[in-house]
């Protein structure tokens, strides 16, 4: 692997973006590596959570501008450029973005594809594509608008300005803002917590929350209720409730 560093600690897998000479710009090759690593792990019952991070200085400065600069519209359409990024979003294992420094363009979009975003106080978020004569292309216009609302999304996308971690936290882009040196420990801690819960319930919770962004309230509530009902077919539901009644910690096995 050329552009990633991968570590496993029990049920938590950490992927570090590693293209330091271009501030972790997200090339096609990096994406191929990322999916090549994460997709098999996503299917592995021993995987409980992913943490995606960059360096202490930068999360990712966006899609690789050098790679796409010379392409034509026909190239873009023929390749359906950026389409495979949705495969990252579709991974069913929870993903935590641990962000230090800039998360710009595709970097911000990558963070938004994650389920939790833990940001350091000096992290910076933005969709500066307008400065390049284009627009966000990895879901930015859609996810950012759903997450922070139209007014704020257009403020960022039309002006190309960045926002700091505090602002990103207050508008709902970021789950937790912590001191810079606490970003990875905090993300790993949250990942270990999530990974210890029953896999069916964790996956169901993600799916239901994401459904809230895709559907109306009535359908979403019915979906949630049916998924809730279905979890009563799992051993983890029996174990979780029995353990509570027996006043002992549960031992979830993901079945
Ligand atoms: C390719 C990049 C890059 C990128 C930085 N580099 N960002 N290469 N793609 N997205 C390279 C620079 O060319 C430079 O290479 C090296 O990384 C260091 O960058 P500097 O600009 O010298 O660093 P600095 O002055 O610290 O500025 C940091 C920065 C700036 C503010 C993050 O690099 C920047 O604005 N980057 C672009 C951010 C951006 O526009 N992102 C959106 C991309 S488009 P050399 O060889 O000179 O050392 C996108 C979605 C596309 O994500 C959707 C449209 C279809």
From TrEMBL:
For this protein, the record's PROSITE patterns field holds: ENOYL_COA_HYDRATASE
Q: Which GO terms describe its biological process?
A: fatty acid beta-oxidation
User: What is the reaction catalyzed?
Assistant: a (3S)-3-hydroxyacyl-CoA = a (2E)-enoyl-CoA + H2O; a 4-saturated-(3S)-3-hydroxyacyl-CoA = a (3E)-enoyl-CoA + H2O
E.C. no = 4.2.1.17
Give the matching CDD domains: crotonase-like
User: One matching Pfam family, short form?
Assistant: ECH_1
- Carries keyword Hydrolase? yes
UniProt keywords, alphabetically: Hydrolase, Lyase
Instruction: Give this protein's Gene Ontology molecular function annotations.
Output: enoyl-CoA hydratase activity; hydrolase activity
Q: Which Gene3D superfamilies match?
A: 2-enoyl-CoA Hydratase, Chain A, domain 1 (3.90.226.10), Lyase 2-enoyl-coa Hydratase, Chain A, domain 2 (1.10.12.10)
Residue ranges of coiled coil:
none
Q: Which InterPro entries match?
A: ClpP/crotonase-like_dom_sf (IPR029045), Enoyl-CoA_hyd/isom_CS (IPR018376), Enoyl-CoA_hydra/iso (IPR001753), Enoyl-CoA_hydra_C (IPR014748)
Question: What does the similarity note say?
Answer: Belongs to the enoyl-CoA hydratase/isomerase family.
In Swiss-Prot or TrEMBL terms, this protein is called: enoyl-CoA hydratase
């Amino acid at each position: 692997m050329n552009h990633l560093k991968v570590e496993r600690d029990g049920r938590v897998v950490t992927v570090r973006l590693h293209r330091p000479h271009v501030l972790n710009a997200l090339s096609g090759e990096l994406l191929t590596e990322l999916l090549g690593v994460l997709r098999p792990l996503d299917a592995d019952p021993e995987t409980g959570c992913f943490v995606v991070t960059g360096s202490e200085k930068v999360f990712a400065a966006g899609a690789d501008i050098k790679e796409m600069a010379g392409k034509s519209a026909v190239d873009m359409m023929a390749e359906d450029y950026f389409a495979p990024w949705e495969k990252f979003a579709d991974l069913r294992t929870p993903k935590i973005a641990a962000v230090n420094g800039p998360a710009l363009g595709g970097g911000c979009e990558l963070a938004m594809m994650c389920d939790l975003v833990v940001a350091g106080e000096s992290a910076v978020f933005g969709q500066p594509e307008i400065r390049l004569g284009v627009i966000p292309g990895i879901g930015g216009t859609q996810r950012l608008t759903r997450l922070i609302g139209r007014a704020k999304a257009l403020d960022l996308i039309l002006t190309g300005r960045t926002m700091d971690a505090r602002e990103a936290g207050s508008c709902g882009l970021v789950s937790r803002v912590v001191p810079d040196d606490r970003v990875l420990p905090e993300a790993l801690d949250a990942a270990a917590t999530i990974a210890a819960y029953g896999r069916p319930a964790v996956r169901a919770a993600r799916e239901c929350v994401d459904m809230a962004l895709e559907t109306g309230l009535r359908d979403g509530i019915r979906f949630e209720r049916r998924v809730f009902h279905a979890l009563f077919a799992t051993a983890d539901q029996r174990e979780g409730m029995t353990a509570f009644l027996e006043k002992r910690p549960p031992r979830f096995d993901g079945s």
